[in-house]
Each structure stands twice: as structure tokens, then as C-alpha cells.
Amino acid sequence: EIMGVMKLLEYLDSHFSDAVGNINITSDSQYVIKSITEWRFNWAKHGWKTSSGPVKNMDLWEKLNPLVDKLKPEFTWIKGHTGHEQNERCDELAGFSRIQEKEIERRVRL
Predict the structure, then answer these.
(1) Are 87 and 28 in contact (CB under 8 A)?
(2) For the chain, which end, N or C, has fewer CB atoms within 10 Å of the first or last residue's CB respectively?
(3) pTM score, two decimals?
(4) Over the stretch 41-52, which tens digit does the pLDDT of each residue have?
């Protein structure tokens, strides 16, 4: 899900110069929202470490942080699987993406 936010912000950054401050990302993931709006500041202050070890997906954070700082998106949390149209569509697309990844992995092994 962090990758999805990063890809969205990369797209907006490269195609919409007036997007700064006009982005609202809706997610059912507390992890996504809190990691971007709260936790990343403490992680950076502590050398990108959590109480249980290094921050996971550091390669994504290195790309995501400058985008978040530049574009200044706002985040809205919604409860998942409650019929929110866009959230249900995102879940559907994520499922499709997982199927594609498995098919690619299968073909690579052949």
C-alpha cells in the first residue's frame, strides 16, 4: 500500500504542477496514514530504526519522503470493506495486481 501512495505521488508530481497542497489520499490502512503523517519523523530522528529494528521498505521511504514533503498531501482514514466505492475499487485492483505478479513469477521460473 505504501507503494501505491508513492506511485500516485510520482504521477501527480510529474503531470500536475499545481497539485501541491491539493491532494487528499483516502485509505483504509492505519499503517499507511500513520507511517506517513506521524511515524516517519521519529524514524528519521532515530536513524530509521523502530523499537524492533530497521524500518522496513527503506528503499520506498527514500523515494516517498521527498514526494510527501513536496506535495503535502492530506490523508483521510476510512474503515475498510464498508462499501466505499473508491476503496472497494482499490482492493479489487490490488487483488488483480497480486494475480499478475504471481503469473509473472510463474513464467520466470519456466
Answers:
(1) yes
(2) C
(3) 0.75
(4) 999 999 999 989
